[in-house]
Amino acid sequence: MTTSGLHFFYFILAAIIILLLLGLSVWCIVNRRLLCATIVTLPRDVTALTRLIKILGHFLYLQRNNLTVGQVFDKNARKDPEKVIIRFENERWTNEQVQILANKIANYFQSQGFKKGDSVALFMENCPEYLCMWLGLSKIGVVGALINCNLRLQSLQHCLEAVNCQAVIYNEELSHALQDVIAIGGLNGTPLYSLCPTENSPSITPSIHLRTELEKVKCSQPEIKEKVGFQDVLFYTYTSGTTGLPKAAVIKHSRYLIAATAMFCLNNFQKDDVIYTTLPLYHGAANVLGGGAALCHGVEIVIRKKFSARNFWKDCIHYNVTVAQYIGEICRYLLSQPPSEHDRNHQVRTMVGNGLRKEIWSEFVGRFNISEIIEVYGATEGNCNMGNIDSKVGAVGFIPSYLNWAIPYWLIKVDEVTGDPIRGKNGKVIVCGPDEPGELIGKIERNHPIRDYLGYADKSSSEGKVLENAFRKGDAYFRSGDILVRDIYGYFYFNDRKGDTFRWKGENVSTAEVESVISSLIGLADVVVYGVEVPGTEGRVGMAAIADPEQSIDFDELANEIFTTLPSYARPVFVRIVSQIQKTGTYKLQKTTYQREGFDVTKTKDKMYILIGKRYAELTQNVYDDIIKRKIKF
């Protein structure tokens, strides 16, 4: 190459480098917030990536070997048969004891003609046998249906029939509920297996005394007639039924194993941790965190029959708990307890769960000396799962924007009234920007253990949960139904449940936000907020149902505080006083009935109040009539 040619080459090379640097400079200037956010969150992202690689490696091992939950547990049991993995009251259950009972269950039900694909309902309160039951059934491919033990009559009957249960295993404490179902024509001929003590007889006739039958059965591994694998169905778990009848979500071995591993690795749990759960084992959160830690990772778990705010920290001290689980309103219930010497005299390092409101987050951590709060997000049947592993106040998880190609979760704009996705001129959905609320969706990839959406046992119940042709023709996304907000750092914050917002005076009102404010004003009592229709108005007027069994609320003070803390459109115009708020089995507050009854004084004997000016006055029949006649303006 000649000297002039060499000079020209260097000139072009220099020009290219300068242009690249200029382009990079322009990009950095335009995206300086994103660049700064990336740098700030780099330690968080590196930590998460390290743990995700560990999860991926374990997943590939499970998938390659076509393993089931039962096989993973048996491997752990062979390694350390004397390891205690379940504590319940004064009971200690070792790997060997759990394995023996699970094998007996498998052998017994196989001898009774149950086969792969059949379903057996578990209608039981929390106890060690609960985990053994569905584990044993799964070894022969029988699918456990984990029934909410609070259900009664038609709701209970619906859950049993939704998956065509061929049998029911129940605690004696719940026998009356099954008797009520029988009285309305349910369970016709369905075999019932009672777990009553050996010396007692079942209270339902006819019932089979399961403990007595199991004494006759061998405890060796069952002879498998039909192979059970990684992608087979493990059990059904039901949605809470906050609106409508419960739906049976399909959980495969693959989903359970990956979820249990993700909870263990992502949250950096250790083999010598002791995990405390007071949540019902029919619920996915307790079954995956508690059950998964014990069965899949050999961690000791402590099960309590029911949550007790008074005994929570006492139990943690007694059992040397290091990790405790929360959900719904549990943290608020604990804060509502009077200060005690037990508040900080424990070894709990980590609290993990969902639903801790940011308004009480710091207070909770400070009072109870909790080093780490791990807030997690995810629907039982969904594919949008994430976690907040660095205790960011209020966040339910995070995904760095530069990793959306690998973790395809998006917040999209939806119509405020209909809830339908808003599409642009090109027909594609519109992605929300930073700090803009939108519905969370997750890309569906068939046969993927995490991104697949299996839906419900009743396929018609899955309609409306899948969004098709979102970004390109032929794609499919799971609709979470939740409205979240994502900030510039990639953190997600729960905003509200789609449908749990209402529009008033041209503004959208978040029920969760108003509930949180009012609850904090009245000593953390239970509150639900909802919109009600008023004749002659557009949108919905805010109404709050407050649990106040002692009738102790000072309404003048409440009105003053509400005017101080809430904008005009968010202030509840109506207030209903109830003895207690209806709850689901996982302590989530229900508002369906209250919303349906509205402010109609003829539908309830509860006292109701209306905001007139800056004061709450009792809602009498005459005032109600004036509202209906549109004599009172809003």
Automatic annotation (TrEMBL):
It catalyses: tetracosanoate + ATP + CoA = tetracosanoyl-CoA + AMP + diphosphate; a very long-chain fatty acid + ATP + CoA = a very long-chain fatty acyl-CoA + AMP + diphosphate. One of its GO terms (molecular function) is long-chain fatty acid transmembrane transporter activity. Its EC number is 6.2.1.3. The keyword Nucleotide-binding applies. It holds the Pfam family AMP-binding. The chain crosses the membrane at residues 6-30. This is Very long-chain fatty acid transport protein.
